[in-house]
Amino acid sequence: MTDMSLLIVDDDEPLRLRLARAMEKRGYVVQTAESVAIGIQMARAKPPAYAVVDLKLGDGNGLDVVTAIRQVRQDARVVMLTGYGNIATAVAAVKAGAADYLPKPADADDVDRALRVGNAAHPAPPDEPMSAERVRWEHIQRVFELCDRNVSETARRLKMHRRTLQRILAKRSPQ
């Protein structure tokens, strides 16, 4: 593709702006949106060749943006970016038309690589994948946030002792 238009849809403003600057340095012509509604509106007004869409946005689900992009531009390469990674959402993203699915935090190199990989090719595994401890910590944090930061409810859902969970939450994230 010679068209390097890129739409970034993410409600995390610092991440969105940092990723936009990094992708502009890599040659993309970037537009940003902070919500599903604005993302769909921008995709319909000027269909992008590439898109990076967060799964969970303040006003809805990023899969709606992916579907809208696919309706106006079949050849668009869309990457789903999310902090709520699991198999079910990855499958839903691919069914909606996303070409790849990256967990947060993903750096600009990972995003660029996922966008530029050919449709028939599979992306290479990451050079430095998250450690098992980091994956566990991310999962615990995600469930904790989904339970509105309620330690007792989180411990119940994770089937772990409340004091054990409190000790894990008090520690810094593993690398």
Automatic annotation (TrEMBL):
Residues 5-119 form the Response regulatory domain. This is ActR/PrrA/RegA family redox response regulator transcription factor. Gene3D superfamilies: 3.40.50.2300, Homeodomain-like (1.10.10.60). Keywords: Phosphoprotein. One of its GO terms (biological process) is phosphorelay signal transduction system. The modification 4-aspartylphosphate is found at D54.
